[in-house]
Design a protein that fits this description.
Layout (H helix, E strand, L loop, with lengths): L9 H18 L1 H30 L8 E5 L7 E6 L6 H4 L14 E2 L3 H4 L11 E7 L3 H9 L11 H6 L6 E3 L29 E5 L11 E4 L4 E4 L1 E10 L3 H10 L3 E2 L5 E2 L1 E6 L11 E3 L7 H28 L24 H15 L1 H14 L2 H7 L4 H33 L12 H23 L5 H28 L5 H8 L2 H22 L14 H23 L5 H16 L17 H15 L5 E12 L8 E12 L3 E5 L6 H8 L7 E6 L2 E2 L4 H5 L2 E4 L11 H11 L4 H14 L17 H13 L5 E5 L7 H14 L4 E5 L3 H7 L2 E6 L2 E6 L1 H8 L2 E8 L4 H11 L4 E6 L2 E7 L5 H12 L4 E7 L3 H18 L1
Parallel strand pairs: 3-5, 4-9, 4-12, 6-9, 16-21, 16-22, 19-20, 20-21
Antiparallel strand pairs: 1-2, 5-6, 7-8, 10-11, 12-13, 14-15, 14-17, 17-18, 22-23, 24-26, 24-27, 25-26
Helix pairs in contact: 1-12, 1-22, 2-9, 2-12, 5-8, 9-14, 9-16, 10-13, 10-14, 12-13, 13-16, 13-17, 14-16, 16-17, 22-23, 24-25, 27-30
Length: 947
């Protein structure tokens, strides 16, 4: 492997990550296809809903002008033409007919039908009452004007008088006000052919007094194509004075129906507050009822009822000033001409915000789960350990997701527009609104969505949890937007400031923008008004949505950076709160238990500490790793005391040296490596790698470091070659040199032949993954490499090959290796340190350790059971200090101090014993490294128990 000491630049590392992400995306091409198909599916579903609605409602015969078939007399019986118009239309169909010359229609006031449904109102005698309330500052003037509001007739009045001048009469209907004629039927959205004109219902004339002699005959209302006769009856009006407007308001508020002392029902038609009206000033406030309709119908009621009410009080005031002969005539109201139309209700635009909210938010779980996956599988940290800094990671990740999201949005707009062009009766959402406006809005929101995903990812550690929460966010945002937020948005009485507060939730700000687009598309389809354009930026409230999205975008980015730098994290915050909560519940008392720990170091460990202290005083480049009294303590958890994983470790590892760490499980080896690689921060002490402090300059340390973790951290869909290419680029390898190094690495770990290099890592066996992890840690010739049990799970041949690779790599690299294999440690390591209970018990090369801690031979002899005593006597003769360490079924093992016996003496004694009794087998062996390990570990554990 070639040596390349120059660290990779920012752009080089960014390029490596970007190319890796593109390769990863290529491997997941079908997932991307399924993701893109979802908006297409929803668009097609919307088109289907619109087509069904068109068939069942828009194109229904009840929602178009009526027609009469006329067959040509040619014997074939076929209908050759149709005549359409109001004369062939029902009241519902008349709305859609052409009216080139709309008729003039006289005006009415509204009388609710409840007045005439009561048993206390005798219609034959005409004793029904309706009420007009009057108040003002001048009681005398108010009483005069009140008397002038309604006319009085004492004789029979012909209908001709009403038709010649309807302004002299106060006409009313008992159900709903129309532009000129009253009816008990509901009005439609137009008055060209009102259904009340075609019904045989009564028209009421409000008079100051109705007597049995006051009778009215029916009179005709002339329509363009029909003449209808209406029966008109008299209804008595009561003009009642109230002291102030508060009394009027309260009486109206209490309810429209109220029984008076005469057991008749009093119904308020209108109310007037004359305020400071006098002969020189006419100032009046009018109450009128518009609660029986809404939307377009409500608007028409207001436009007609208000002028008629104003006309009544104006005539009364003129009567007060000039006498009864002076009147302001209100003869009729006439609509403008119109062409024939058809119902064009764009249901797809109305429900579009819900569907498109779901479509755009579908990107959120994709981004979030990808980020959490890298954190859960510790892929991000392994990339960081190999030199990928936070800056390149966040920049490329952001750009990467932004490109995917932008392509997704463009695909959505293309699909939506293509479907609209194909099915002209379908969606109008995209075609009717400005494309640039739609794109900028979606582009801003996907930026906010990516930033929010980065921010929220810090709160999750498992992909499954993040996925569930993100999909709840998707469907919850859409449904709450459609059934709560939109309802409040359309409620004019709901405070706008609370709408603004609700839009601070990103899902509602997205829904608000899509809602505005849908409203403009709907109005364009119905009225022909332009869709959403940039000129509507302020009037449509989109400016408010844009500002919210932009501000939240930057806030989310800043918060993400702050959390990622370790200044604040959700987990740490909860730990902090939990700690203080516990302290408030269980405050510390003055009586605390104390313990005294006696730490005794062996001579070799003490010499290593002195060596480190000297290096700290006189820095030298000869040692790649220097640890000075390094400690790592894990805080108390779940009621357990704090765990001291590393207890004041002092260690110096020279360049080109392989240092092996031995120790039982839980001794602290992995905690030490995690501290040195930045996964955990040291509690105290200091550590330096190539002269760089791991607490201050870890980002620089990563550029010259390689790691083979205990668990293989690989992307399942990337091949072995692609892994090595990515990590090679992080180590500033380029071009042909990169390809050559990758090829050599694959060959060294036996992953080159048979196409294994180009298979996804997810299909590798455990041993192949382990070999790939070792190759990744060594690529680029890093100055320092940490290997945590690198040969675990390998067969003997692969293990020996891997040992050769590691031994070759230590020619230019300092290696710290942990292992449970004594054979591996003896083959690879220049020095060994036995780690027990977080403390270095001994240190030296394998031969020194065996000589120091294994100063005895192990003598083994197997005989029959009756000669076991003879064997013991034989050993006692050889060495009085010999100790039996094993005994079973005639086989015995003894430890014999080397200083007390020679090998030749042992052979002589055995040959002599064979002449006395039968010896089945015997042996003499030197102390192994495994024996040393067991002896040191047991001794340290026994000491810890005693202390």
């Amino acid at each position: 492997m070639a040596t390349n000491p120059v660290p990779a630049s920012f752009l080089t590392r960014a390029n490596a990550l970007f190319r890796k992400n593109l390769t990863f995306q290529k491997r997941n091409i079908w997932s991307n296809v399924r993701l893109i198909v979802i908006p297409l599916y929803l668009c097609v579903l919307l088109v289907g809903i619109q087509a069904l609605f068109n068939t069942q409602f828009n194109n229904s015969v009840d929602n178009r002008c009526g027609c009469k078939r006329i067959d040509k007399k040619n014997g074939d019986g076929k209908c050759e033409r149709k005549s359409c118009g109001p004369e062939y239309s029902s009241p519902n169909q008349a709305f859609f007919c052409a009216f080139p010359n709309p008729p003039p229609l006289p005006p009415l006031l509204h009388i609710p039908s409840s007045v005439f449904d009561s048993n206390s109102c005798t219609r034959n005698t005409g004793s029904c009452h309706v009420t007009i309330l009057v108040t003002g500052n001048n009681h005398t003037l108010g009483a005069t004007i009140s008397r002038n509001l309604l006319p009085t007739y004492s004789t029979v009045i012909s209908s001709d008088d009403f038709l010649r001048n309807p302004a002299y009469n106060v006409l009313a209907s008992s159900e709903i006000l129309v532009v000129s004629i009253g009816t008990t039927s509901e009005t439609g959205n137009t008055n060209y052919l009102d259904p009340g004109i075609h019904s045989n219902l009564s028209i009421f004339n409000i008079q100051a007094r109705c007597t049995p002699n006051t009778t009215l005959s029916s009179f005709p209302f002339q329509q363009p194509l029909h003449e209808f006769h209406k029966e008109e009856r008299c209804v008595q009006g009561l003009n009642l004075w109230r002291n102030n407007s508060m009394e009027v308001n309260n009486e109206i508020f209490e309810g429209y129906q109220k029984e008076n002392q005469e057991e008749s029902i009093k119904e308020i038609v209108a109310a007037y507050d004359l305020l400071d009206t006098n002969r020189n000033n006419f100032n009046v406030t009018i109450w009128y009822n518009s609660t029986y309709k809404f939307n377009i119908k409500d608007r028409r009621v207001k436009l007609v009822q208000v002028p008629r009410s104003v006309n009544l009080v104006s005539n009364a005031y003129l009567h007060f000033l000039q006498g009864p002969e002076t009147k302001m005539l209100f003869e009729y109201v006439k609509e403008v001409p119109k062409l024939e139309s058809r119902l064009r209700l764009d249901i797809a635009s109305l429900i579009g915000p819900l569907f498109f909210t779901w479509v755009i938010l579908l990107l959120f779980p994709v981004i979030l789960t990808s980020l959490v996956y890298e954190k859960q599988q510790r892929l991000r940290i392994i990339m960081k350990m190999h030199g990928l800094g936070d800056g390149p990671y966040w920049m490329i990740s952001y750009v990467y997701y932004l490109i995917i999201s932008t392509l997704y949005i463009i695909s959505l707009m293309i699909f939506g527009s293509a479907i609209e062009l194909q099915f002209l009766a379908g969606l109008k959402f995209f075609l009717f609104n400005d494309y640039s406006f739609q794109f900028i809005f979606c582009f801003l929101y996907i930026n906010l969505q990516i930033s929010t995903a980065f921010l929220v990812s810090s709160a999750f550690s498992k992909v499954e949890t993040a996925s569930v929460v993100s999909y709840i966010h998707i469907f919850g945002s859409g449904l709450l937007g459609a059934f709560l937020f939109q309802f409040l948005l359309e409620d004019v009485s709901f405070p706008r400031r609370w709408i603004f507060v609700m839009e601070l939730y990103p899902g509602f700000s997205l829904y608000r923008g899509l809602y505005e687009f849908s409203i403009y598309a709907y109005q364009k389809n119905v009225t022909g008004r332009d869709g959403m354009k940039w000129k509507d930026f302020t009037n449509s409230a989109m400016d408010e949505v844009f500002y919210i999205i932009i501000v939240e975008w930057f806030v989310a980015l800043i918060a993400t950076y702050y959390i990622d730098q370790g200044s604040l994290s959700v987990k740490d915050s909860f730990s902090f709160l939990r700690k203080h909560f516990k302290q408030s519940l269980y405050p510390r008392t003055s009586m605390q238990s104390s313990s005294v720990t006696v730490e005794m170091e062996k001579l070799d460990a003490t010499q290593e500490r002195a060596k480190v202290e000297k290096l700290m005083l006189e820095p030298s480049t000869s040692h790649a790793i220097v640890c000075d009294n390094l400690k790592k303590v894990y805080p108390r958890k779940d009621g357990n005391p704090p765990k001291m994983a590393v207890r004041g470790l002092s260690l110096a590892v020279a360049s080109k040296e392989c240092f092996g760490m031995l120790g039982p499980n839980g001794a602290g080896k992995t905690s030490f490596i995690n501290t040195m690689t930045g996964l955990a921060k040291p509690t105290s002490g200091a550590a330096f790698v190539q002269g760089l402090d791991i607490c201050k300059d870890m980002d620089k340390v990563y550029t010259s470091m390689g790691v083979c973790p205990q668990q293989d951290l690989l992307w399942e869909t990337l091949t072995g070659r692609e892994h090595l290419l990515f990590y090679g680029r992080l180590k500033n390898l380029k071009g042909s040199e990169l390809n050559q190094v990758v090829e050599d690495s694959l060959k060294n770990v036996n992953l080159f032949n048979g196409g294994v290099a180009d298979k996804p890592a997810g299909k590798y066996s455990g041993g192949m993954k382990r070999r790939l992890s070792v190759a990744i840690s060594l690529i680029g010739s890093p100055k320092v490499v940490y290997m945590d049990e690198p040969s675990t799970g390998l067969d003997p041949a692969s293990r020996m090959n891997l040992w050769t690779v590691i031994k070759r790599a230590k020619r230019h690299t300092a290696i710290i290796l942990t292992t449970h294999s004594m054979e591996e440690a003896e083959f690879l390591c220049d020095r060994l340190g036995i780690f027990v209970d977080g403390r270095l018990q001994c240190i030296g090369n394998p031969k020194e350790l065996k000589a120091r801690y294994g100063g005895s031979y192990v003598f083994t002899m197997t005989t029959s059971s009756e000669h076991e005593q003879d064997v013991e006597m034989l050993v006692q003769d050889l060495s009085p200090n010999a100790k039996k360490i094993y005994h079973i079924a005639g086989t015995q093992k003894f430890e014999i101090p080397k200083v007390e016996v020679g090998i030749s003496k042992v052979f002589e004694a055995v040959e002599k014993a064979k002449s006395s009794f039968t010896v089945f087998a015997w042996g003499l062996e030197d102390t192994t490294l495994e024996d040393v390990f067991i002896k040191v570990a047991r001794g340290a554990q026994d000491f810890n128990v005693l202390s």
